[in-house]
């Protein structure tokens, strides 16, 4: 089940973190405060945790990979649920659900041990 190498996961982390940060403007919901701030926070958290993760693309390498993957799963679940949790589902929900599903999938399908 865990077939994504940690190095590939690292690339996905940085790309998806940037996508999370850009998504309010890319998908046209930057004028909706709650909808906008959820992916901005998720993108910042994704990039921050990536920088500190002990894997091939980590800069500081203090956060264990298993913890990083758990954070990805939690972040993905929050993104998926956020339109209903924060009350903006009538305005927009699909970008949050898709980005959250991606984070969930990456967290669940990535190998737990980096190849340093």
TrEMBL record:
Limits of the SPW repeat-containing integral membrane domain? 9-108
Fetch the Pfam families from UniProt.
Answer: SPW (PF03779)
Q: What is this protein called?
A: SPW repeat-containing integral membrane domain-containing protein
């Amino acid at each position: 089940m865990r077939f994504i190498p940690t190095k590939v996961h690292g690339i996905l982390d940085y790309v998806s973190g940037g996508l999370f940060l850009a998504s309010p403007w890319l998908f046209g919901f930057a004028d909706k405060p709650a909808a906008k701030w959820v992916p901005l926070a998720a993108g910042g958290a994704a990039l921050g945790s990536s920088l500190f993760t002990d894997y091939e693309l980590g800069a500081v390498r203090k956060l264990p990979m298993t913890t990083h993957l758990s954070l990805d799963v939690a972040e993905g679940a929050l993104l998926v649920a956020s339109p209903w949790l924060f009350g903006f589902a009538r305005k927009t929900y699909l970008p949050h659900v898709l980005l959250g599903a991606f984070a969930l999938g990456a967290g669940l399908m990535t190998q737990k041990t980096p190849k340093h």
